[in-house]
Amino acid sequence: MEYSLTEQQKTIKDLARRVAEERILPVRAELDEKEEFPWGIVKDMADADLFRVFVPEEYDGLGGGCLELCLVVEELSRICSAVAVTYAASALGVLTLLEYGTEAQRRKYLPEIAAGKKLGAFAVTEAQAGSDASAIKTTAEKVDGGYMLNGTKQFITNGGEAELYTVICLTDKARGARGASALLVEKGTPGFSFGKKEKKLGIRSSATRELVFRNCLVPEENLIGKPGLGFVLAMRLFDRSRPGIGSQAVGLAQGALEAAVEYTRQRIQFGRPLISLPVVQDMLAEMATGVEAARALVYAAARTVDSGVKDVTEASCMAKVFASDVAMKVATDAVQLCGGAGYMRDYPVEKMMRDAKITQIYEGSNQVLRNAIAIELRKRKGRRE
Fold it and tell me: Is there a single domain that holds both residue 349 and residue 366?
């Protein structure tokens, strides 16, 4: 379909596709098998200036918005979601800094992020605070010279590999979620360490680790925004980042669809290619329609974010929920169409099916986000009355 992309957006999309096909495709199976963090690919993406896409021009970036970021994530995910989420998580780690950080903070950190010399990460999840992010327990007590950070964060993408972490923590425990703040914490800060690298069902080459803070002194100038706004900033961040998860799902689904079409063209059964069988054609048609519908919704949500509209919760949640459900179904159907071969690691669709599942879980499980959509609908009905 025609999505009226600008010439710059088309260039970004084509560049990301070229990096994915030339650099990621030859090693994706090996990265998955070894569960190896893709530092070589990170360098390739940096050399191609992909990390500059989401950083403003005044900090050595290209000044792209949510849609440009989604275009890159989609193309990377078409080949490998694990590499794509490594890239996207770095953007997630600095988006709050981009919107609410001081000029000094931006000047200090963003140029190196844009150059791909350092990766970012975002840390809110804890053992008892997953879908309910307001249940965080990590504290940051105000002391002379800054904040004394104590606690743990769980399931942090890019954990242990990133150099810069945006950490949501309680600076006023008595106020609960209203006492949360956002702190920038650099890797190597005394008192900051990492747990073991998690072994996952999918996105295996992406690093997922626990962050451990034990009397970790964070300078006062590393506070993002005002004290007590951390939870609000986190929720605003997710409203603007969820189309990125949707684009990950779209790219993965597109890759699975292409693999299924290619296989059914070549596989001969009953004396003819599988793709000539009506039941197979029906499945492929439904898969293709789902992918295109998801893409349209994700692009629309991304453009809504970029338009500056204040309330984008409903649009971003819809994009993430719909696209991730499509990805799971398309990847599963691709395995089915490829039969026994599709179940084997020699074919990419089994990896895609494993990778697809997480898109229904992180940055808000689809069940929780459906509830968020319903709440927005209630608000809308109330306003009309």
Answer: yes
Into how many domains does the chain fold? 3
> Is 200 contained in some domain?
yes
Residue 385 inside a domain? The answer is: no
Q: Sort strands 272-273 and 192-197 into parallel, antiparallel or unpaired.
A: unpaired
Integer Cα distance of 135 and 360 in angstroms: 21
Are residues 220 and 146 in contact, defined by beta-carbon separation less than 8 angstroms?
yes
Pairwise CA distance, residues 2 & 53, whole Å: 22
- Return the H-helix or E-strand segment holding 149: strand 146-157
| Helix or strand run (H / E) with residue 121 | strand 120-123
What would the two tokens of residue 288 be? Answer: 């293709």
Which among 62, 60, 68 has a CA at the least distance from the CA of 13? 68
Whether residue 73 sits in one domain with residue 34: yes
Positions annotated as catalytic residues are 363
User: Is the same domain home to 114 and 127?
Assistant: no
pLDDT in tens, 119-149: 999 999 999 988 888 899 999 999 999 999 9
pLDDT tens for 301-355 read 999 999 999 899 999 999 999 999 999 999 999 999 999 999 999 999 999 999 9
Sign of the CA dihedral with 61 first, then 63, 65, and 68 last: negative
- Strands of 171-326, DSSP E: 180-186, 192-197, 208-219, 223-224, 268-269, 272-273
Burial 151-171 (b: 16+ CB within 10 A, else e): bbbbbbbbbbbbbbbbbbbbb
Give the residue from 125, 76, 124, 43 showing the smallest Cα distance to 355: 76
What does the alpha-carbon distance between residue 384 and residue 345 come to, in Å, rounded to a whole number?
53
| Interatomic CA distance for residues 225 and 146, integer angstroms | 14
Q: What is the mean pLDDT of residues 178-204?
A: 97
